[in-house]
Amino acid sequence: MRHRRNRAGRWRLLLALLLAAVAGPPVTGGTASAAEPPSYLLQEADYGTGTVTNGWERVERYLDTTAGFLTEDYPPDGRGDQEGQRLTYFGGVSRPSSGRFLLHSAPGWNTGARTTPILLVHGANDTADRAWANPGEAGGYGCGAVSCPSTGLMQYLSARGHRVFAVGFAHKQGDNLMQAQIVGDAIAVIKARLSVDKVDLVGWSKGVMSARAYVSSVKPSWGRGYAGDVRKLITLGGPNGGYDYPYAHGWAHDFSIWPECGGKVNAPSPHSHMTCYGLYTAHPEFSMTPSGGYDDYPGQRQMLARWDGVYGVDGATQDWYTTYYGGQGLYTAGSGIQAAIDAGSLIKPLHNAGVPAAVTTYLLAGGSPDVLGIFNENRGPSDGVVFISSALDTTGIPTVGGTATIVGANHLELGWNPSAAAQIAAWLS
User: Fold this and answer.
1) What is the pLDDT of residues 297-329, one digit of tens each?
2) Contact yes or no for 357/382 (Cβ under 8 A)
3) pLDDT value of position 375
4) Cα-based distances in Å from 55 to 22, 125, 158
5) How many helices (H) and strands (E) does the chain have?
6) What share of the chain is helix, strand, coil (3-state, %, to 5)?
7) Rounded Cα distance, 427 and 114, in Å
8) Strand pairing report for 58-64 and 41-47
9) SS3 call for 291
10) What are the phi and psi torsion angles at 365 (to 5°)?
């Protein structure tokens, strides 16, 4: 009996080795040894090949069940609602709770040869689809140029062996503290799926805020701190030193927002009142600061910092003084930039908290102030929205791996400009 048992044991071992040889070696970080994501994350939907657009292989919707998430305020006229394919991904809910998010997986997410996966974090009034996979989806205004490509950084990195993911937020202008928790959630799913310990984070514009808040453990009182799971952080056109564009150019900025002036853009105004074609109207729902029971743009307020001491304020702009410093102007009224900063800017908290020294950080700036369709930032060297000196501000960043300025790229081109993509790939290697 003992010999038969030994022979049976040897046969089982031989069979296991044979099967392993047939299957071949496991792909590092593949799904064979995947674990379950944290119990507070509920997968609500999974859209696979044939049902997703713009070259993605898979899109999933998750719900973070942690108490504290809420449905943020949306502009009542619908300009901030989810739409198109993203509306489908969010289950037909146009104004989802900020505890819900999308995780996009690129081709090669489980087969790419490069060990550390990448999570892409998009910016304000944007989506993972347009930002990373189809810059031309919204035309020139969306991508910042007259001619826009139909593929982006996702395809560029995926083709070079990277395992690429992107997070999609419920609220296009949402609270960066809640979105930082979502960044951590997306990383937790990726780690569980690929059995890896760390990811690389690439944040663009407003997405830099939530990425930095996550790694710096700048969080709501109910939130979770940084889990030590980021290897590299790359910021693209990030307002690392803050920005004041809406207040410095408020009059021109407002024409794209105020409905009585024909504006439709989902962006905040420095004003609560404005005159359009002789009609003085109030729109507290578009205010940068909470006003009239509305707070539709908390994520923008959190990026504010004053630059009037460095580059001044354009005195040729209509109502320039009251727009920047607050008060009643000839055509507009508002509370000014300092009131908005006091209402919740995150620039100083992020500087004070600092990025952990173990996270190597790279900063990329655009050097071309020629964004199509807007009044470009012209008080100092900029990418049309963010000053170069802000995008390259290393305050609170102890381990800087590199900085660069893409002279030919504006703020909206940084995610797809060929030179920018090559620089990002070099930093990720």
Assistant:
1) 999 999 999 999 999 998 999 999 999 999 999
2) no
3) 92
4) 31, 21, 11
5) 16, 13
6) 30, 20, 50
7) 13
8) antiparallel
9) strand
10) -120, 155
